[in-house]
């Protein structure tokens, strides 16, 4: 796509994509969405598409006025930096939450105004965050699919084409391979940063009932580690975390400054949280200390409950009402 121009998003065409983040939510066997504008054909990197988008095309900005854009973690990192705000503030101001699956896995989409226009659209100038636009905006009109064939441990990246009536780019006389289109749109950097996250979301989806619905605390952790990198940093740098996990001082120095290093770590940590993989070693006595801390809290709560109940009894028996007055 030409400079200062946008693309669109994979979920903009409705149907399945509204429920699935663009790149990840397919099943254990190849799944090709047949709904609406998505062409029912799994394409490879060397497949050719006919497409061109540029400022001045008759449909310029139309796609951004019907925006339904699912965000991946690296998208948020780039956008919050671009807009000069924390991830927490970005999420609050520019996103809306949704559930990625029936187990309540949290996802986020870019917020639009009441007409469906993306808040990042800069009037007739096109995308206001073009060089930091999200993955699905880069790919459009190509949809990235993660397919895992039965008995295959690895997901394969495949693509499909989205053809929507309002998008006139398909009528432009330019043929380009998907591989070249990805390079042109800067997709590889985004995919490389998000790939581990796509894998773990796909694994969660493929595992189905064998993993089951993660506890609420795990879903909260997934949200924080995936989308709210600045809160995740505070969590990782907290005394509690440091006293639980065996990580070298250089690691803490790196994640203190570097968003990318923290994101890489967060995805690995999520494998531990969601699938019980032993990725980050705990200190030998961490479990005992946690149990002891919890016991202290439980004991304190129990004591408070006893005192509250005794105080209520005292009040009942000394102030009358239905109680006994000495
Ligand atoms: S982020 Fe930019 S390219 Fe993507 S929908 Fe919004 S304005 Fe359009
Ligand atoms: S509708 Fe298609 S051709 Fe038109 S601006 Fe959007 S992506 Fe480009």
From TrEMBL:
Listed InterPro entries: Puta_zinc/iron-chelating_dom
Biased composition (Polar residues): 1-11
One Pfam short name: CxxCxxCC
Chain intervals for the UniProt region annotation (Disordered): 1-22
The protein's name: Zinc-or iron-chelating domain-containing protein
Source species: Thiocapsa roseopersicina
């Amino acid at each position: 796509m030409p400079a200062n121009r946008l693309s669109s998003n994979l979920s903009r065409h409705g149907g399945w994509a509204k429920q699935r983040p663009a790149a990840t939510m397919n099943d254990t066997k190849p799944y090709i969405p047949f709904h609406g504008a998505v062409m029912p054909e799994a394409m490879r990197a060397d497949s050719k598409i006919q497409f061109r988008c540029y400022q001045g095309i008759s449909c310029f900005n139309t796609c951004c006025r019907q925006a339904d854009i699912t965000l991946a973690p690296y998208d948020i990192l780039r956008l919050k930096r671009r807009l000069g705000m924390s991830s927490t503030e970005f999420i609050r101001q520019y996103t809306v939450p949704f559930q990625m699956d029936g187990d309540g896995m949290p996802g986020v989409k870019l917020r639009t105004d009441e007409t469906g226009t993306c808040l990042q659209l800069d009037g007739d100038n096109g995308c206001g965050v073009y060089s930091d636009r999200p993955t699905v905006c880069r790919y459009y009109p190509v949809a990235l699919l993660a397919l895992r064939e039965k008995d295959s441990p690895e997901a394969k990246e495949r693509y499909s084409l989205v053809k929507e009536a309002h998008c006139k780019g398909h009528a432009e006389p330019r043929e380009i391979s998907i591989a070249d289109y990805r390079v042109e749109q800067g997709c590889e950097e985004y995919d490389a940063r998000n790939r581990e996250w796509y894998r773990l979301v796909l694994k969660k989806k493929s595992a189905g009932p064998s993993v089951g619905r993660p506890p609420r605390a795990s879903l909260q952790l997934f949200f924080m580690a995936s989308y709210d990198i600045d809160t995740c940093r505070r969590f990782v740098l907290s005394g509690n975390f440091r006293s639980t996990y065996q990580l070298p001082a250089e690691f803490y120095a790196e994640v203190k400054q570097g968003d990318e290093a923290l994101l890489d770590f967060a995805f690995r940590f999520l494998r531990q949280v969601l699938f019980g993989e032993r990725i980050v070693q705990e200190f030998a006595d961490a479990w005992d200390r946690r149990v002891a801390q919890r016991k202290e809290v439980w004991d304190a709560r129990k004591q408070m409950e006893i005192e509250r109940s005794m105080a209520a009894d005292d009040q009942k028996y000394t102030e009358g009402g239905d109680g006994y007055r000495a």
